[in-house]
Amino acid sequence: MELIMLFSFLLFLFISIFSFYMHARFMAKRTIHSVRMIINS
To answer: Which keywords, in A-to-Z order, does the entry hold (predicted)?
Structure first.
């Protein structure tokens, strides 16, 4: 029972970190794109 609790907790942690990483990458790409547009104009 405790093993299942631990496993589900680790899975939740992994998913949250992964989604945060993907969101951060997406935001970084958008920010870089915006900065380039500002510099070019």
So the answer is: Membrane, Transmembrane, Transmembrane helix
Q: Tokens at residue 14, please?
A: 């992994």
Tokens for 38, please give them.
């500002």
What count of Cα atoms within 13 Å lies in the side-chain half-sphere of residue 10?
A: 6
What whole-number distance in Å separates Cα of residue 5 and Cα of residue 34? 43
Distance, in Å, from the CA atom of 15 to the CA atom of 17, rounded to the nearest integer, reads: 6
- The angle at the Cα of 24, spanning 13 to 40, to the nearest 5 degrees, equals 175
* 16 vs 11: CA distance, rounded Å: 9
